[in-house]
Specification:
Elements lengths: L2 H18 L4 H7 L23 H22 L4 H4 L7 E2 L15 H25 L9 E2 L2 H10 L5 H4 L8 H22 L9 H25 L11 H15 L30 H8 L22 H8 L2
Parallel strand pairs: 1-2
Length: 325
């Protein structure tokens, strides 16, 4: 399937319709070989068609999130160079003293292997989306993988001494890495799930988005399982891992539509799969997802995207439409 051609055709069709809109209705019908005005409509009750094809905007929104996840995991395993030139040379802000060219000190070989696999998956998602979108692909935005994590920790634990939350660095050790990964993984799952109903091309685009959603779900399950296994481990914040996860979950819920859960149920049992009462994974609107990555409701910059999302100029209006869903 030539995805690049597919999206080029979508954009060309939209430009064509925009130009046709400047012509008289009768002229458009005649030019298209349709019936003249006054002819009976062969289908008096047609199904309404979407007024705007948001597929390129949806996938560019996803691409921004994939840039973020890919940069995070590639830095963690010392492979940051693999994304440094993908989509441009926008800055990737990392904690002081860490440049992403050397892996963090994993103490568990299995977790190191998981992290490396996820890094490869996320980079593959970036490359796939860029290829599919072609000339309509967004450049890589400025990404904050340093101070933004401190801001997230401070917001999640307002009662903890800021001197402690200021030490939150997901690249400092294996456990902090898992906490950092937890911030992103559930968001990716809910983002793809929430955007699915707005996709126009159900055969091609939705099928591929569903495939990426499945991969993000596997990743989220890995991270949640690893954290649950250490749920009683004490952290420098003075609380066990389960409470740190609960704090992050509560922060996401506060700006992300309340759709979140930690890794432990009230009775102490495992909650690896966060779902609603029907056992269905949560879905977030693009606006709710943006609130989380910007670390503030209704923001357009900040958090992990200090200068906002990167978007092609001719799709900015569609991005605003997405954020209004």
């Amino acid at each position: 399937m030539d995805y690049q051609k597919l999206f080029k055709n979508k954009l060309d069709r939209r430009r064509l319709l925009g130009n046709l809109g400047m012509m008289g209705a009768g002229a458009v019908i005649t030019a298209c070989g349709g019936a003249a005005v006054g002819q009976p409509n062969p289908n008096p009750n047609p199904e309404p068609e979407p007024t705007t094809d948001l597929d390129p905007a949806i996938l560019n929104f996803a691409l921004n999130l994939e840039y973020l996840e890919a940069a995070f995991y590639l830095a963690a395993v010392g492979r940051i160079d693999e994304i440094n030139t993908v989509g441009g040379d926008a800055e990737i802000i990392l904690p002081e003293g860490f440049d992403g060219s050397t892996s963090i000190e994993f103490t568990t070989p299995e977790i190191a292997s998981y992290a490396d696999e996820i890094a490869s998956d996320e980079l593959a998602h970036v490359n796939f989306l860029r290829t599919a979108l072609g000339a309509s692909a967004a450049d890589r935005p400025v990404l904050d993988l340093g101070p933004a994590f401190v801001a997230a920790a401070t917001a999640a634990f307002p009662d903890v001494d800021p001197a402690l939350t200021a030490q939150f660095n997901p690249f400092a050790n294996e456990l902090f890495f898992l906490h950092g990964a937890f911030i992103f993984e559930d968001v990716g799952v809910t983002a793809y799930s929430g955007a699915a109903p707005a996709i126009t091309d159900k055969t091609t685009v939705l099928a591929k988005a569903a495939g990426i959603l499945a991969v993000e779900s596997y990743h989220a399950g890995e991270i949640r399982t690893l954290l649950y296994a250490q749920r009683e481990t004490q952290t420098p914040f003075g609380v066990p891992v389960a409470d740190v996860v609960a704090g992050i979950s509560a922060l996401r819920a506060s700006v992300g539509g309340g759709k979140d859960e930690g890794i432990v149920n009230e009775d102490g049992s495992a909650n690896i799969v966060p779902t609603d009462d029907d056992g269905i994974a949560f879905a977030r609107t693009p606006r709710e997802v943006a609130n989380i990555v910007f670390l503030a409701a209704d923001a357009t910059t900040g958090g992990f995207f200090p200068e906002g999302l990167a978007f092609p100029a001719d799709l900015v209006d569609d991005l605003n439409t997405l954020l209004g869903l």
